[in-house]
Design a protein that fits this description.
β11 and β12 form a beta hairpin. This protein has 7 helices and 14 strands. The protein folds into 2 domains: about 240 residues, Aminopeptidase (3-Layer(aba) Sandwich); about 70 residues, OB fold (Dihydrolipoamide Acetyltransferase, E2P) (Beta Barrel). The strands form 2 sheets. The protein has an 11-stranded mixed sheet with strand order 1-3-2-4-7-5-6-8-14-13-10, covered by helices on one side. A 3-stranded antiparallel sheet has the order 9-11-12, with no helix packed on it. The chain is α/β, with parallel strands linked by helices. The structure holds zinc ion. It comes from Pseudomonas batumici. One of its GO terms (cellular component) is cytosol. GO terms for molecular function: hydrolase activity, acting on ester bonds; metal ion binding. This is Succinylglutamate desuccinylase/Aspartoacylase catalytic domain-containing protein. InterPro entries: AspA/AstE_fam, AstE_AspA_cat.
Length: about 325
């Protein structure tokens, strides 16, 4: 039986191309919650928030939030909040063990079920989520910035509701939008409470900017975060011009996640070095082997969303399968 350490050792390591910003100067926030800074314009408008570090080693969001805070960015209307999530895990990042600080006790992007937040359960991530919760309850429009284990084109995860898809389409970046209901093993911040209620005007997006430690991921985080603030009219374009990528966004395509592939064993291997967004033309194509079992694509033109073995364990989702949606523009 392979161990997770052996699995990780067999995978290609990615260089850490970016600097981890020192976020300790942002510890004392101005709204009663550490590492959250909130600015009210005094002009009516939505409460818009950018959240970084829901996963502790996903530095691109921290780079963007740190840059916005240092720039002194303020909203033109409504309220603008900038926050760092799992700061404990971030502070414990180890360049020799880059995958270890996604979280410390449990995945902070699986705890956002009210019943779990209200429960007696204890973990470092639950404690932080409970600190953040009253604040998150006041947010109308949220961008939660993540990055990926593998270098793949950036993705927007817009949730399962039409309002999320429409929000992603209005934003216009990144080029690939993934429509999905989240994960069976817990609830994401993006899917928390009213963000996932079709009847509510609140809305949330989760962006996966690219590989955790790549320069490209950093650029995508800054660009998408800046466009998010322009689209929500929290700021005007000139306020964030320095953070925008010069290239005009192209057309978007939308993928519908149909199912996860969940590993049954530590003897799970993809047949190729998949990195994400590969399109498998024919149904029945073998994409992985899990012990003696062959994993095949269930339909033609099946897209692989975020394949990775870096957190392999029986019961863990190692890739999600998606159909290309035909959405008229
Ligand atoms: Zn993440």
């Amino acid at each position: 039986m392979k161990t997770l350490e052996q699995v990780r050792a067999s995978l290609k390591p990615y260089p850490v191309e970016v600097e981890f910003p020192d976020i300790r100067p942002w510890k004392t926030g101005n709204c009663g919650v550490d590492y959250v800074h909130s600015f009210d314009s005094g002009v009516p408008g939505p409460h818009v928030m950018i959240m970084a570090l829901t996963h502790g080693n996903e530095v691109s969001g921290a780079i963007a939030v740190d840059a916005f805070l240092r720039s002194g960015l303020r909203p033109r209307q409504g309220r603008l909040s900038l926050g760092f999530g799992n700061v404990e895990a971030y502070h414990r990042f180890d360049p020799q063990d880059i995958d270890a600080t996604r979280y410390l006790d449990e995945d902070m992007n699986r705890v956002w079920l009210p019943a779990k937040l209200d429960s007696e359960q204890q973990s470092l991530e639950l404690r932080r989520a409970r600190e953040l919760r009253p604040f998150i309850d006041s947010v109308d429009l949220l961008l939660d910035i993540h990055s990926m284990h593998e270098e793949s084109a950036p993705l927007m995860m817009c949730g399962a509701r039409t309002k999320g898809l429409e929000f992603a389409a209005t934003l216009g970046v990144p080029a690939t939008v993934v429509v999905d209901a989240g994960h069976a093993n817990g609830r994401r911040l993006r899917d928390y409470a009213d963000f996932n209620d079709a009847a509510s005007r609140k809305n949330a997006l989760l962006v996966e900017t690219g590989q955790h430690f790549s320069q490209r991921s950093r650029q995508v985080a800054l660009d998408v975060a800046a466009r998010f603030l322009i689209t929500t009219q929290a700021v005007s374009e000139e306020d964030v011009a320095a953070f925008l990528s010069p290239r005009e966004p192209g057309p978007q395509r939308f993928l519908q996640v149909t199912e996860p592939v969940v590993a049954n064993s530590m003897d799970f291997n993809f047949v190729e070095d998949f990195r994400g967004l590969e399109l498998i033309a024919r149904a029945g194509t073998v994409i992985a082997r899990d012990g003696d079992q062959e994993i095949v694509t269930p339909y033609d033109n099946c897209v692989l969303v975020q394949p990775s073995l870096r957190h392999l364990s029986p019961g863990v989702t190692v890739v999600r399968l998606a159909k290309v949606l035909d959405i008229p523009h």
